[in-house]
Structure formats: structure tokens, C-alpha cells
Amino acid sequence: MKRVRILAKMIDHSLLHPTLTDEQLEEGCRLALHYDTASVCIKPYAVPIAAGLLKDSDVFVGAVVGFPHGNSTIELKAAETSKACEDGAVEIDMVINIGKALSGDWDYAAREISAVHTAAREGGSILKVIFENDFLEQNHIIRLCRICSDIGAEYVKTSTGFGFVKQENGMYSYRGATIEHLKLMRQHSSPRVNVKAAGGVRSLEDLLAVRAAGAVRVGATATAAILDEAERRVESGEDFTI
Q: Where exactly are the structural domains of the chain?
């Protein structure tokens, strides 16, 4: 089952839906423990609960900051990061100020990412910087990758999974992690910066595809379905490449 464990350790089990109850949070943490995922990705208020449930395990506690729209001030994002670390988070997923990126205010973007990265490092955490690619053009993504590389952020991340874009028919939808964007992020980030895919990774085939495109972590809610399918294929002798 070595291949299944490798895939499990790619997954940040996402527990971020606005309606998530405490009971569902605890169920999600137990699921992450059962499958031995890389982490749980949770809202800041839930960090103490998850830290208690996952104590002495190999499943990390990750918290989101400025989630999901990235509109908090730099100071608040840094403070939110420090508080999450104090409560037991060892990974931080921070949403950039998307409007500032679209405005081309790269000095602001750099100051924001640097401030949160500093707070994360001081708190003993790594930082994943969420771009929300559905709202951005390629030139924005490339510039953000370079900024994150210069600052030394540990990860660049495609999306929140909640970046819904209004369509011509008035409905809202999102693409999330696309192979095109993942390859672009891998190409324009330092080798020291990892890539995380989030949004739309719902099957084993999705997970294998984003891994091939350069992602080493994924955010997923379909963790059980993905890993059960991987285990089934291994047990039945079906080959798949990772």
C-alpha cells in the first residue's frame, strides 16, 4: 500500500464549508486520521479543536487566513496567522488581496505575503499562498509566483474552492485547479516553492493528473473516495503510475 500512502500524504483534507458543524469537524478530523492524510485544512476558530483531536498523530493542522476572499488588512492577516499558530496550526493557507493583484499593485502584494510569511515562520508554520486563479490572467499568476519565490513562501496554491465567478447566464461557478495553471505555476516558481492544487480534485484520476502537472499537495473533500479507489486498484492488481 506504499502508493496509497504517498497519495494520502498529498491530501489536505478540506473542512471549510460555511455550514460545517462541530460534529462534522470532528468527523472530518477522524477521517483524516483514518486515511493518514497530510493535514486537515480548517477555519481559524476550529484550530484548538483539531489540534486536540490530532495530537501525537502524523496529520498536520492547517488553518486558512483571510478566507475566502482575501479582503482583510495586512495587519489582520498577520494577526490571524499568529493566533492560528498559537492555537496549534503548523500550516497556513492565506488568500491574497485579489483586487490588489488585478490592480497591478505588486508592492502591496509583496508586503502582504511577506508579513504573513514572517508571522507564520515566527509561529513555527509554513505558508501556502492562495492566488484564486479563476479571477486572474496568466501575467498575474506569473508575477505572483515570482513574488512568492523571492519571499520564500513554501507553497503557491491555485484557489480556495469558493472563488465563484459570475457567468453570462447569471449563475456562479469556478474551475479551481486546472492543469494549465498548475504547469504555469510550477514553471514560474522557484524549485524551492511547492505547488498546491485546490478546487475540483474529486477523483483518483484528478489527483494523478494534478500530481503529473507538478502539484505535491491538493485540497480535497472527496478524500475517502479518492483513497478508497486507489486502495481498490492496488488490491485488484490494476496498475496506475504516481
A: 2-236
